Every structure is written in C-alpha cells, then in structure tokens.
Amino acid sequence: MKAGYSSLRDEVLKFYNLMFGDLIKLLGVIAFCAITICCLGLFGIVFYSMETRIKEISIRKIVGASNGSLVFLLSKSFAFLFVASTLIGVPIAYVINGFWLENVAYHIILSSGMIISGVAILGLFAALIIFSQTFRATQIKPVDTLKIE
Predict the structure, then answer these.
(1) Full-prediction pTM beyond 0.70?
(2) Domains of the chain: total
(3) Which of 71, 64, 46, 58 is nearest to 148 (CA)?
(4) Less Cβ crowding at N or C end of the chain, within 10 Å?
(5) DSSP symbol at 147
(6) Is residue 61 domain-resident?
(7) Is residue 117 in a domain?
(8) pLDDT by residue (tens digit) across 14-66?
C-alpha cells in the first residue's frame, strides 16, 4: 500500500502546470479569437469602403485607369493604417510581455525575429484581405454600376 505523500518537486510541477499550462492554453484561444475578430473587422471595413467607392472606381476605369493602379490607390490607406497600428502595438505588446515573462520561472527571451515573424503573418492576413476585396472591386463592369445614373 502506498502512502499518501509526494515529493515537493512533484507538487510544485503540478501547481505550475495547473496555473501556467491552462493559462497558456486559454491565452492561445483568446489570441486566436482576437485575430479572427480583427480579420473579420478588417474584411468588413474594406468591403464597406469598396462598396461606397464603386462609382468612383467605375469612373476611373472609364477614364482609363489600369487595374493595378486602382488596387494601389484603394489599398494604400489600409496599408498606412496597418503600419501605424503595428508601430503602436508592437512596443506595447513587447513591454507587457516583458513584465509578464519576468514572473515566470521558465521564460523565453523575446527576440526581434519572433516579433517580425508575428507582424509578417498578420501583414500577410491583412494583405490577402485587402487585395482580395480591392481586386474584386476592380473587376466589376463600369456599365453595370453607372447605368442607374
């Protein structure tokens, strides 16, 4: 028959896994939800912007603008917003993660490569969303949108 005792190391590891193991999983789910909601919000903003500028796009196409110049024109404001939000958000996230990781026994050092890869992944998501909607807006036929006038 075993006695009802365990080593201090086992108790500390059990407590550590309970607190930080579940916390890491919860933070992962929250981060996934936040990124998904942000991408859906960006999709909504870009979609609304393209729908409100549909007549302008049609007139520019009639005047002779190429699809590439229209995509650049329509997406440069969103690219500026992405860069501005990155310049604001990365230092804040770095400081907050630095404070949080100081209190963890087994912590990592945040490197610039990790930050750059995270920003690159988010930039890829943003570029795909913005490009898909601007490209869709440039593929419409100007006759269909202007015949109402």
Answers:
(1) yes
(2) 1
(3) 58
(4) N
(5) T
(6) yes
(7) yes
(8) 877 777 777 788 888 999 999 999 999 999 999 999 889 888 888 898 898 88
